[in-house]
Amino acid sequence: MKRNRSDSNLGADQPAQLRYRDAGVDIDAGNRLVDLIKPVAARTRRPEVMAGLGGFGALFALPVERFRNPVLVAGTDGVGTKLALAIHHRRHDTVGIDLVAMCVNDIVVQGAEPLFFLDYYATGRLDVGVAAEVVAGIGRGCELAGCALVGGETAEMPGMYRDGDYDLAGFAVGIVERDKIIDGSGVAAGDVLIGLQSSGPHSNGYSLIRKVIELRGADLTQKIADRILLDLLMEPTRIYARAVLELLRRYEVKALAHITGGGITENLPRVLPAHCQANIHRAALPKLPVFEWLQAQGNIPEEEMLRTFNCGIGMVICLDAASAPAAVDVLLQLGEKPVVIGAVETSDEPEPRVNYH
């Protein structure tokens, strides 16, 4: 009987055995990263954390004994194209702080105490050293915010990202007493607006920042007001959670706005009721050198600056005029740089808005 040719050469053309690593995913590298993350997470641990890293889900016992009617508040965000600068200039140690800040600052504006945080780190090929730097920054951010780093996900996806690239997402959960939720409904004409100074652009407007750098061929090693420009641009987002929560324990705050993409122009109206307008004194906004440089180098109109960047104010606090002076004193004691930037007035227009003068 004639033998089939394929039968006679069975196994001769078999490909070599493949491993996951051959496809670009290194399980061992992932395990090494987990080992490096464990002490970072341990430093952020709160009493409510019920298990360490490694489980399929994180267990966290709600501190219900401190609340009558607790409500959970959740937020998620990323770092945006600030990561492009971080990757290009190998500044990986602070973008994790940015990630935490963008999430916890969002939930604290509703009066929530940040409880725990999870991160998502995606890359084409896992560089354990780079990832460890990023996660160390996340851990530091959690320490500053007072929340626990309870877990996350590291996704190695060859073909999805260029070599060396990575992306970040964060997820924060907080808790607030139902009758202490801050929703802006009590804002009224005459209320004072206090701004907390930002540390720079925070994590917003970096597509425009990078365009300015590209068009001007900017030297990021130059000094601006005695600081290297790259350092100013990579300064991490300020985390306001501890100071804001302490202020909430002492005074009735009517509204809070985290000033992110869109600036004061777009973000403050989100927490104002109908027929209210915020009158902002332009001269009261801090004149941070990094924003002056950006505006001059990019020939950016004033209105565009105000609706793209935070322009020196990372958080706005609204409270009654009688409490404002004492609130400013408390915020100074807590290490913030507060400044009265304006007041609330009634408006004929139903949609809340911001006016600058």
Care to describe what's here?
- It is a single chain.
- With 357 residues, the chain is an alpha+beta fold.
- 33% of the residues lie in helices and 22% in strands.
- It is built from twelve helices and twelve strands.
- The chain has a six-stranded mixed beta sheet. The protein has a four-stranded mixed beta sheet with strand order 1-4-2-3. The chain has a two-stranded antiparallel sheet with strand order 6-7.
- α2 (27-43) packs parallel to α5 and α4 packs parallel to α5.
- The protein is globular.
- The model is unreliable at 1-8 (pLDDT under 50).
How are the secondary structure elements laid out?
Blueprint: H1 5-8, H2 27-43, E1 70-78, H3 82-89, H4 95-108, E2 113-123, H5 128-145, E3 148-156, E4 166-177, E5 192-197, H6 206-216, E6 223-224, E7 227-228, H7 229-234, H8 241-250, E8 255-258, H9 263-267, E9 276-280, H10 289-298, H11 302-306, E10 313-319, H12 324-333, E11 338-346, E12 353-356
Parallel strand pairs: 2-3, 9-12
Antiparallel strand pairs: 1-4, 2-4, 5-10, 5-11, 6-7, 8-10, 9-11
Helix pairs in contact: 2-5, 4-5
Query: Care to count the β-strands?
Result: 12
Helix/strand/pairing category: alpha+beta
In one word, what is the shape?
A: globular
Output the strand order for the largest sheet.
Answer: 8-10-5-11-9-12
What's the gyration radius in Å? 24 Å
Order of helices and strands: HHEHHEHEEEHEEHHEHEHHEHEE
Sheet with the most strands? 6 strands, mixed
| Count of alpha/pi helices | 12
